[in-house]
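Fold this: Potassium channel family protein
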Amino acid sequence: MGMKLIKFLYYLTMVRGRIFLPFILFYILIASFIAYSLEPKTFESYLTSVYWVLTTLATVGFGDYAPVTNTGKTFTIFLYITGVGLLSLFFGKIFASFRLFEKHKAGGKMKYTGKNHFILIGWSEKTKLAIQEIFKTDKKVDIVVIDHVETAPIMEERLFYVRGDATNEETLKQANLSKAKGVIIFADRSSQETFPKKDPLLVDGKTLLIATAITTMEEKLNKSIHVTAEVINQNHLPLFKQVNVDEFIPTEEMISHAAVRSLFSHGVTHMYSELLSTEAGESVFEITKQAHWKTYRDAFLDLLNKGATLIADGGDLHINQKLDEPIPADAQLFIIYNKQSFTNLCEKMPDTF
């Protein structure tokens, strides 16, 4: 009889978690009811018997309550034999679930369910620097990295990893692209390593496929998501524009341009570094058009009095040549300003963002 009972309990512990947890609760409540029924004077109330059963199963046994009858003591022995092991299995199952959760998270097998996050596609040192930059800029935003490495390259509280092919719709869904705030596609130079001759077409071709997959999914969702892509060869930019990539990082062109300018204007690369680095005092920020700014001159002088310099409207850097022109409603104004003072400027100008 005892062996059959043990086998029955073992069988119950092996069933699915959705049955196991209710069974544990049911077991505790029934055991408490039996204990209270056997010795109502000892336990005084049903709640007290629940307390005694839990302390007994947890093997802490404070000793403030204990059965005094032979029947009660026999039931206690039964509780030890069946319940302690059952509860141990229960906690083991919980710990195993936590380990499985961490394993799946590190292995990129879990679906990201948050929103307003950034998706970075492709892992490299540039991706690592981009993560640091985003975390410094926004203390709350989450980041989802998509790549094909077996485990997450780094583990952070707000960093999530999805393992898979970024050209695959299921992978993009796993990264919750539909709820993302923006995407950066980094060029995968590793695709050149398997070929004897390095060809930027291989790298840009993969980036273009990913951008196309994102555009296709955008059309299905009827939603626009800001996409920035790193492009190795600037001759490929028209192809990326056709798939609605919003912004480009023409890597080779930028490096070559900065290198050449440094020969004619010594120290120009330091200026580039200062503007692009979050560690620098001055940086580039976007600011929203204020209601009292009618022309670019109004904005330029107002910002200048506050210590900021208006430098561009979107990609237009010729602000100084059209100061008396009206600022369009959809203007995207950029300023150079001290990072520490930018917060104070936002407080004075509540419509900054």
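The chain has three domains: 2-106, 118-255, 281-353. The longest strand covers residues 226-231.
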